[in-house]
Prior knowledge:
Layout: E1 7-13, H1 21-36, H2 40-53, E2 57-59, E3 62-63, E4 66-69, E5 76-86, E6 96-105, H3 110-122, H4 126-134, H5 138-151
Parallel strand pairs: 1-5, 3-6, 4-6
Antiparallel strand pairs: 2-3, 5-6
Helix pairs in contact: 1-2
Amino acid sequence: xxxxxxxxxxxxxxxxxxxxxxxxxxxxxxxxxxxxxxxxxxxxxxxxxxxxxxxxxxxxxxxxxxxxxxxxxxxxxxxxxxxxxxxxxxxxxxxxxxxxxxxxxxxxxxxxxxxxxxxxxxxxxxxxxxxxxxxxxxxxxxxxxxxxxxxx
Length: 152
């Protein structure tokens, strides 16, 4: 599964304002909520419940908050960039700048794991991460992801 099959430009935020984990999650789900019509509070709840099990801040400035939602028809995704960085309780203790939000239907295991694996794989590319960090618009982020998405 390619990232651009599920990521929409409307759910790409290039200037996250929040300074903490909860705020970042709320910002990310707000854009997804507008597209899906699902209440932001419901989406936030699912993500925060997953975060209670352990942080999805994987280190290297990256966070992949994710969760599963009952009655969701298809996988939804958002992206966020924080130039200042956020304490996302990541494994390396460093600020998190790049966020990939994933919410999948409750009964869908395969899609969720495939997308997580793909994101993890492309984020090993340092030049890709640097380009994302410098992106100024959702169109630019979409284009950068599209370039790398074809190669992996």
